[in-house]
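Handout, section B. The chain below has 389 residues.
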Amino acid sequence: MNHQRNQDLPTENKIGRPQVVFITGMHRSGSSALSRAMTTLGIHHSTNLMNASKDNKKGYWEDNDFISFNDDLLRRTGQLWEEPKLIKTDELLMLAEEKASEASSLLKDKIENKRITCLKDPRLCNLAPFWKQICKINRTPYHFIASYRDPLSTAISIQNRDSINAEKALSMWCTYYINLLESVNSGELKLVNFDKLLTETRHEIQLLSDFLGQQILEEEFKIYSEQFLDINLRHNHQSLAPENPIEVVSSQIKSSLDSYNIKATPDERKNELDLASLRNSLIQANRDLSDDSSASKFKDLFAVHYKKSEELNAIQVELQKTRIELERIKSLRKAARKRYSETIEQFNNLTKTIWWKAASPLRLILSSQRDRSNLRALNSRTKAESKPD
């Protein structure tokens, strides 16, 4: 494992070099919201961002050129984003030397003329040694920030979006973070719990501020926390029975990540040991998931859970339709009440006019005629009913 310190690179404060913050984390783990959070610290994004979609309505906050380049790198190493493998650092370092000119040009294009820029891509978990080397070649200061959330919820979300078996998605989750933790040291990496970013936003942003040495911009923070963040950003928050094998593995993995974040101290040696322990925990979890007997059990359990999830989603769709219909009925009632009130007001205004008063005798005559006509009709019916058969 390469442990060259980020401090070995020149800092922006000393010589004014642009910095880059790499945002990563497993797909569907909150990295988009984390990338958007960078604006609260005055950190820029590129101008060629991927468009939002129905799966990510508030945007991916990923650069199209950067994503395309990384996809090509994965293919060169025999990977796809959905088919990760445990990385070989030497292979990626050799690839960095081969692609140094092209990668350096791309990096400079994205970060030049800005003090500090973020580039987000979940694929960075599997490509960290490559981009670290490119930054070192260009003497570009860098940091890595990775979001994470409950692995089970992430796996179910990926299954729903990409039709990837959830047990495979859970194994992918482990591979992504094993690769990242294998490639960076504790001084280069900050892990962010996505659920806490949603519920303890100020605290999490302050931790990022401390890590990056960037002040919080209060106006940007207000926009981010009040307008951008939404509990619906948490795709498929799932859980099974606490004793369920999948839930046990998922909880153990998440607890390991949470524990590492809590235990982070200024003692770099201790942080490195904790990081190694975390990495070993993920490796063991990945082995458990790869075991044939375990995988078989997981597959059956996930199938049941997925069916329940689909049924729940269908119910939620129907509830949403009902809510929309209720809102439509409320709107119609409100409009009818408004028209009624306007009609009454118009009538009241009419009764106050001179024309209404002038027509009063005519209304009495017409009313009297109607009364006499009604009386004659009543008498006729009465006589007809009283005749003997």
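Note. The mean pLDDT is 78. Compare this with the example in section A.
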